């Protein structure tokens, strides 16, 4: 009994501010926070994938093509004092033009005479007359018919480009026979453009890969892993040896020989 009494007295003699229980609670809270942070950081490093390393390049391809279709137009004109005579003259001139084209070896099915048009021509006469009660002469206009003019176009479409080219240069010799005819510049087309686009896309893509390899090789960088994306750009069809470009794309029709130029924008993933 005396021993227990002494222990009680000793406990009563200790100061209250030395109570260590709150410190234990604080230590537990700090430990919980540190554990949560470590767990979150570890989870983030496992779940978040590293960003892909890529390279973007532009490849191009150029090829010379030769037109395989020509379209050419000649225009006839005839005049007379009345419609019937004008049309008769035009019909005679049209027959001469068609006969000449056929004599040059152009097929009848490739020659397409168009519908004729008529127009009455007038001459405007002016005169001044002093009308009754007027002090100043009045200007009067009078239209006098000069006759009729009739016009017709002849269109030729053919795959025999050199033959039609020759005819377009020689058709105006009919002027010596009294035929009023004018020759327009031929238009040249390439009809297999759809097939060529596939070929050009492959060539431009190959060029893009070569450019990417050269860039990485010269910089001592990584290698190419795979192609991520490829987009075909605008196709420009220019006269031979022309480097003209357009945001809408050129489509030359004035030249027999043309250069087709296309680009590809490619993105590759790196190792």
Question: What layout of secondary structure does this protein have?
Answer:
Layout: H1 2-13, H2 21-47, E1 54-66, E2 69-80, H3 83-103, E3 111-113, E4 117-129, E5 138-158, H4 161-170, E6 180-183, E7 187-189, H5 193-219, E8 224-232, E9 236-239, E10 257-270
Brief summary of the model shown:
The chain is of the alpha+beta class and 271 residues long. The chain has 2 domains: 54-66 and 191-270, Protein of unknown function (DUF541), domain 1 (Translation Initiation Factor IF3, 2-Layer Sandwich), CATH 3.30.110.170; 69-189, Alpha-Beta Plaits (2-Layer Sandwich). The protein has 5 helices and 10 strands; from the N terminus they run H-H-E-E-H-E-E-E-H-E-E-H-E-E-E.
Structure description:
The chain has about 270 residues and is α+β, with helices and mostly antiparallel strands. It folds into two domains: about 55-65 and about 190-270, 2-Layer Sandwich (Translation Initiation Factor IF3); about 70-190, Protein of unknown function (DUF541), domain 2 (Alpha-Beta Plaits, 2-Layer Sandwich). Helix content is about 35%, strand content about 35%. It starts with a helix and ends with a strand. Residues about 1-10, about 15-20 and about 40-45 have low confidence and may be disordered.
Mean pLDDT: 84
Number of helices: 5
Structural class by sheet pairing and helices: alpha+beta
Tell me the CATH topology of the largest domain. Answer: Alpha-Beta Plaits
Give the CATH architecture of the largest domain.
2-Layer Sandwich
Identify the notable features of this structure and list them briefly.
alpha+beta; Alpha-Beta Plaits; 271 residues; four-stranded antiparallel beta sheet; disordered N terminus; elongated; 2 domains; Translation Initiation Factor IF3
């Amino acid at each position: 009994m005396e021993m227990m009494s002494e222990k009680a007295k000793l406990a009563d003699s200790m100061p209250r501010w030395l109570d260590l229980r709150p410190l234990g609670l604080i230590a537990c809270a700090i430990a919980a926070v540190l554990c949560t942070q470590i767990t979150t950081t570890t989870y983030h490093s496992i779940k978040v994938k590293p960003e892909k390393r890529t390279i973007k390049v532009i490849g191009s391809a150029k090829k010379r093509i030769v037109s395989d279709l020509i379209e050419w137009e000649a225009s006839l004109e005839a005049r007379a004092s009345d419609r019937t005579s004008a049309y008769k003259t035009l019909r005679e001139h049209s027959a001469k033009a068609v006969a000449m084209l056929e004599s040059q070896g152009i097929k009848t099915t490739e020659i397409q005479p168009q519908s004729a048009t008529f127009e009455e021509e007038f001459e405007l006469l002016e005169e001044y007359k002093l009308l009754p009660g007027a002090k100043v002469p009045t200007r009067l206009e009078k239209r006098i018919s000069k006759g009729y003019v009739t016009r017709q176009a002849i269109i030729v479409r053919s795959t025999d480009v050199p033959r039609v080219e020759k005819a377009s240069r020689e058709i105006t010799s009919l002027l010596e026979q009294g035929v009023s005819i004018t020759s327009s510049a031929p238009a040249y087309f390439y009809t297999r453009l759809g097939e060529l686009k596939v070929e050009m896309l492959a060539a431009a893509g190959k060029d893009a890969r070569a450019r990417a390899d050269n860039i990485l090789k010269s910089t001592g960088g990584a290698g190419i892993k795979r192609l991520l994306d490829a987009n075909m750009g605008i196709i420009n069809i220019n006269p031979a040896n022309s480097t003209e470009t357009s945001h809408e794309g050129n489509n030359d029709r004035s030249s027999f020989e043309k250069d087709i130029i296309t680009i590809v924008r490619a993105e590759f993933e790196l190792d």
